[in-house]
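Suppose a colleague, Dr. K., hands you the sequence of a protein chain of 336 amino acids and asks what its three-dimensional shape might be. Before reaching for any lab equipment, you can write down a predicted structure in token form. Begin with the sequence itself:
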Amino acid sequence: RRLRWDLRRRLVFLGLFFFSGPALFFFGYVESYSWLLVAMTGFVLGGQAYLEERGPLWAPSFFWSLGLFFHLTAIFSLPALAYLGWTAWSRQDPESRAKKLTSLFLPPMLAIALSLSLHLALGFDHSWFQNEYLSGTHTRGLLVSATGPEGLFSTYQGKMQLNLLLLVSPVSLVMLLLSARFLKTRWRQPLVIFLGVQILSVALASLLVQRKLGDAQDWDLLAAHFVGLPLLATHCWFGQDASRNRRSSAWPAVFALLVFLPWLALNAQENGSRERFSSVAGGFPPFKQGYAFENLGRHHQKSGQLEAALAMYEQGAAACPSHARFQKLVGTTSLE
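The predicted structure, expressed as tokens, is then:
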């Protein structure tokens, strides 16, 4: 309600938001990325409200800090937070700058202090960090390598990035492409800069930063940061033609629904979802393929389907025979 938008714009944005891949976070999702999505959505909406002079500066700062508490990938949106700080500095007289900057930096400082305290109290100290991230057997560089089968310019990397865009919000991306004329003439608008910086910083992180967890792609980690895309798409769509009638303004949300429903229907069917994941996993590199079949095996094992679990573990071991854990799962499951 704080946004300076009429009802049509709000409905189009809500359609793009709810009929998107990240909406599945709220359909029985078991990880914490749904909370990260809530926090980063609050950050972007709070930033827009501040730029429109309809909200306080501490609100986006608080939600960004909350996101950082849930997951370190909130750092990807740090440039957008810095832009809000720059606008606060340039807008205010010298006497008000200190107050504004305090409201901007205090929540992140408190969040970082609280997170570090909890980590240290639970045993995640310097030795753990050294062993987990700097000396581990699967340790890699921070950045994706430029060459190799999974390098920055490889076919595999291009396929993964395209898949991420299709999973997250393809209709928003098309809307932005169709609004190129508006972006070309209005790119200096504070809201366009803020949303653009947030989108580009997350996109660059997706492209350049090596993802360690399970040696998998973890699309959901990055999808939690997607809200800037439908916000910017809606702003540009109506900014390019503010006189759009109801029919032409509604089609983005309708198309988003048409794209979303098959995916929702597929994942609502347990067998179909398993079969799709199994077929997609067949195209992964060796370790990622083994890891995928391990997860399928654990799913069957928890359901009491030991024969199906063993078959998945065997596929994982065959895909990556050098990994001891996959071989061990085959052995222990065979003895049950």
